[in-house]
């Protein structure tokens, strides 16, 4: 049966010169699934546009590669103002509810058979369908009892889908909470390290300390600098607590990688290990990587990634080295080496290595990157590497590799790859 025999549709021709107005428009809520298309207040916003004024109750449809439908009921919206539909959106009423329900009508309009009819009307139709074309569409109408059975079964299927989606959302929420708790734990771990360093300095110096007193096993640091690190960690901790219930606030931005690494090293010194970097004087074959003066120009390699995300990634790598690599060797020459490689045209590689204990033989890359994976349940959270993977995936990092080389000086390597977004050259 053709739609023109089933639906009531008023004249929707507009005087375009007079149609421009400010009003409440339906801006979202349409769906290709008839079960998910109820318009609510969040789908309506005040706009200045051309549109059709809607009655208190109607069905709506528009075509954009596929048919999208919606159900509008002003009583459910609880708004007194007039609501409008944009030009190209067709509103209609079911005048044959004795033979077809509203839901089954929308289901039929979204069917593959109707989609094929629309394509047959005009093979070039991708956006929009005329009112006449819409009325010419044909749908199959089974008995009401059969319609109700089909709708009931598909509603039950939707409820199962929504239950699964809700469960997945809750799991993601739990993971987000665990990651934030993990970040707070890392900050507390750093505070504890600085406190232990102060305790050692007090003991070694028989309680006689001043700002210039130096302490530390692998790398010497002044007491005044330790207090600066404690203050910095307390500021970070305060921010982590204050933003615990908020989003991560991370947005990709373009920045030069080399000075970022320099700043990170400067702000994240530790008495348990020392940093090593590539010798910039030997890197003149690729000066643009390191932001050095070369041939009268200053070069910087650029990546597009959230600074906060990359800081979090480096924090996790460094903390993993401290907890897993250096934990049993506090008085040795512990080192973390950071180097960059790549080409101007394609990929930048950032490698962070440490010379601590190698990765446990039972821990594969897949296990390390899995949520909550650890060789010592109850002692470590197993979230650090997982968070690195999440951030690399979320913000377009090209790849993440973790390598173990027990026979080399640097036993563990994290290899991060990023797209090269150009070279900043300052003359």
Question: Care to describe what's here?
Answer:
The chain has 427 residues and is α+β, with helices and mostly antiparallel strands. It has 3 domains: 3-141, Adenine-n6-DNA-methyltransferase TaqI, Chain A, domain 2 (Alpha-Beta Complex); 167-246, no CATH class; 248-427, Histidine kinase-like ATPase, C-terminal domain (Heat Shock Protein 90). It is built from 12 helices and 19 strands. The chain has helices at 16-19, 74-77, 102-109, 112-121, 131-135, 144-204, 223-242, 257-267, 287-290, 307-325, 365-369, 384-394, and strands spanning 7-8, 21-26, 44-49, 51-53, 57-64, 66-73, 83-86, 90-94, 214-215, 221-222, 253-256, 274-277, 293-294, 297-305, 335-342, 347-354, 399-404, 412-419, 423-426. The strands form 5 sheets. A 5-stranded mixed beta sheet has the order 12-15-16-18-17, covered by helices on one side. A 4-stranded antiparallel beta sheet has the order 1-8-5-6. β15 (335-342) and β16 (347-354) form a beta hairpin. α6 packs antiparallel against α7. The protein is elongated, with a radius of gyration of 31 Å. Residues 279-285 and 292-298 have low confidence and may be disordered.
Summed up, the helix count is 12
Reading off the top of the CATH hierarchy, the class of the largest domain is best stated as: Alpha Beta
What's the number of extended β-strand segments? 19
User: What average pLDDT do the residues reach?
Assistant: 83
SS content category? alpha+beta
Domain module tally: 3
What topology, given as strand order, has the largest sheet? 12-15-16-18-17
Major β-sheet profile: 5 strands, mixed
- Overall 3D geometry? elongated
Find the CATH topology of the largest domain: Heat Shock Protein 90
Computed over alpha carbons, the radius of gyration is: 31 Å
Helix content: 25-40%
Unreliable runs: 279-285, 292-298
**Corresponding CATH superfamily of the largest domain:** Histidine kinase-like ATPase, C-terminal domain
From the N-terminal CA to the C-terminal CA, the straight-line distance is 74 Å
Residues in β-strands, percent: 15-25%
CATH architecture of the largest domain: 2-Layer Sandwich
């Amino acid at each position: 049966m053709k739609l023109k025999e089933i639906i009531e549709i008023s004249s929707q021709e507009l005087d375009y010169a007079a149609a421009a107005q400010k009003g409440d428009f339906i801006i979202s809520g349409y769906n290709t699934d008839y079960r998910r298309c109820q318009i609510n207040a969040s789908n309506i916003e005040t706009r200045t546009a051309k549109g059709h004024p809607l009655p208190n109750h109607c069905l709506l449809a528009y075509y954009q590669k596929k048919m999208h439908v919606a159900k509008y009921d002003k009583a459910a919206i609880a708004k007194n103002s007039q609501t409008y539909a944009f030009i190209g959106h067709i509103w209609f009423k079911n005048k044959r509810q004795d033979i077809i329900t509203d839901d089954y009508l929308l289901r039929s309009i979204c069917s593959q058979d109707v989609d094929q009819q629309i394509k047959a009307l005009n093979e070039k139709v991708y956006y929009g369908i005329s009112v006449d074309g819409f009325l010419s569409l044909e749908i199959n109408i089974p008995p009401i009892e059969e319609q109700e059975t089909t709708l009931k079964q598909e509603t039950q299927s939707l409820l199962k889908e929504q239950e699964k989606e809700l469960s997945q959302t809750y799991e993601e929420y739990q993971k987000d909470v665990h990651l934030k708790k993990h970040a707070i734990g890392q900050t507390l771990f750093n505070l504890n390290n600085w406190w232990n360093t102060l305790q050692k300095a007090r003991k070694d110096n028989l309680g006689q300390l001043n700002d210039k007193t130096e302490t530390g096993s692998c790398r010497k640091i002044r007491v005044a600098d330790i207090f600066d690190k404690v203050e910095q960690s307390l500021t970070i901790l305060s921010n982590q607590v204050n933003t615990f219930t908020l989003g991560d606030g991370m947005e990709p931005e373009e920045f030069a990688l080399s000075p970022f690494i320099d700043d990170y090293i400067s702000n994240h010194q530790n008495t348990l290990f020392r940093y090593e970097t590539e010798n910039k004087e030997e890197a003149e074959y690729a000066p643009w990587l390191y932001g050095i003066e070369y041939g009268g120009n200053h070069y910087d390699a650029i990546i597009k990634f959230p600074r906060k995300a990359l800081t979090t990634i480096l924090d996790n790598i460094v903390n993993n080295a401290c907890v897993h690599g250096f934990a049993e060797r506090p008085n040795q020459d512990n080192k973390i080496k950071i180097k960059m490689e790549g080409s101007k045209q394609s990929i930048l590689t950032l490698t962070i290595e440490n010379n601590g204990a190698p990765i446990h033989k039972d821990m594969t890359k897949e296990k390390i990157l899995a949520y909550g994976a650890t060789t010592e349940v109850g002692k470590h959270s197993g979230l650090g590497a997982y968070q690195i993977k999440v951030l690399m995936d979320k913000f377009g990092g090209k790849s993440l590799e973790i390598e173990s080389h027990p026979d080399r000086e640097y036993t563990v390597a994290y290899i991060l790859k990023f797209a090269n977004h150009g070279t900043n050259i300052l003359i």
